[in-house]
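Provenance

Sequences were taken from public entries as deposited. Structures were produced by running a predictor on each sequence independently, with no templates supplied. The record for PAS domain-containing protein from Halteria grandinella is shown for reference.
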Amino acid sequence: MGEIEQELWSHHVKQSDKQSNYIDITKLYDYNRAFLAFQKNEVLATMASLKFWRELQDKDFNASKLQSYGYQISKCLGQIQDAAIEIARVYPEDIKFQFRYGMFLIKIINNDFDGTECFKLAQNIYINKVDKRDESRTQQRQQARFEDNAASCFALLSTDSQNFCHIVHINDEVETIFGYKRKELLGENIRALMPPVLGPFHDGFVKKYLASGKVELSDKIKQSLGQSKDGYIFQIDILIKIYPKISGEIQLAGVLQKSILSQQVNHINQDTMLGLDHVQHMILTDQKGYVSNASFGMLNTLGLHPKFFRYQHDSLMSMIRLDFIAPTALDPGNIELIESDGMAVPFDTSELLAKVESEQLNHDEIELVRPYLKKQDFFVRMKKIPISETYHANLYILQSIKLRLDGSSIVRQQIISSGGGNDEERQDINFPISFNIEKKVGLSLCRKRVLKKEALTKPALVLCPPLAQAPAPSQRQCVISRKPSPTVVCLEPS
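Predicted structure for PAS domain-containing protein:
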């Protein structure tokens, strides 16, 4: 064992002893190898069993074939039992394995007794975990998501100069999360699971991380974006660790899961009051506004198929800018507001098929997206994703604006009293509003307080309805102005 491996292993052991909830990456790796061995032999034993019974039903069955199939079943069963012992050693409370093992014993081996015992054990483990869930802290519950192969994609990456960041091991959960078969990714660079606007920079991040010498062994969950095999983006949670057992090279271990949208849950009540749909969609662009990917929900809302976006860093002609489908989204006067507070932006994909080359989509794909190509308003927020000191990507979060039965928007007005003192009285009211437009600035959630005037006794914060769908005049008349900043002023009777 070399000096580097000894030091890494020493740090790993100290961290494991120090923190009871520390995720042991070596156990995760051992578990995944044992589980893959179980899956492989489970399939082989099943195939041999089917051949055995098919041969036995033949009137002129071949005894030597039956003996051969029986030997294969016994051999696979022995290797499955070895895998079961290893999994019990590493993660004795793995519900998924106990269920799979029980089904195998009952359906293939015809061992109902041991199979039922596996089911009982899985049920007891589940009950114990539910009882302990309320007692554990939030961080511990978050970390527990990555254990026991609980829908987690586990990948081991090479740091060899010839195969830098290439996948040397990955489990079958990658198909559930990303849509790829395991064999499709072995030997490929990990950036195959990343959006093209982010992927090319990943190797540089890892090299910088390794060169810094600051190896983090703590269980810090990071958020990023993944790309499915079909080209859709989604949010993922990642644990990144150095695998402490070195055989010739340092290896990086990553555990990935689809994000639990815990941070977005806090906004659901607020968004409901604002008249926004709680479902959030995503569009990812580069710094110049060229679209890289969209989330799956954008297919059924605006007909945005992944094949529309052929993002390439060196080919601008084949790419689509965001302002082609959202003309006001990249206006200099709107970018700051979209990033800080959010803004309602009109989208129009009705002419998108005329923009893209016809051979990009086949006939079935065109017929799939055609009904959803339309005009629609979305409330949009934007987050910058820093990539380097001078370059960033933009992630746009879109939410549909709810409409009343009469076609007007559901909006939220927050009335702030103009009386003295620091205390503010707030009242939330949903109502349709009309506009006396001084200058059309688009549709926005205006959080700026207006200047007090004699005609105004109460300044208001309003989520504007789509201008094209403004309802008939109501009791409140509103003015949209650019100065001193994009603002909606609602006149109230004194």
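The two ends are 83 Å apart (CA to CA).
The first strand starts at residue 153 and ends at 158.
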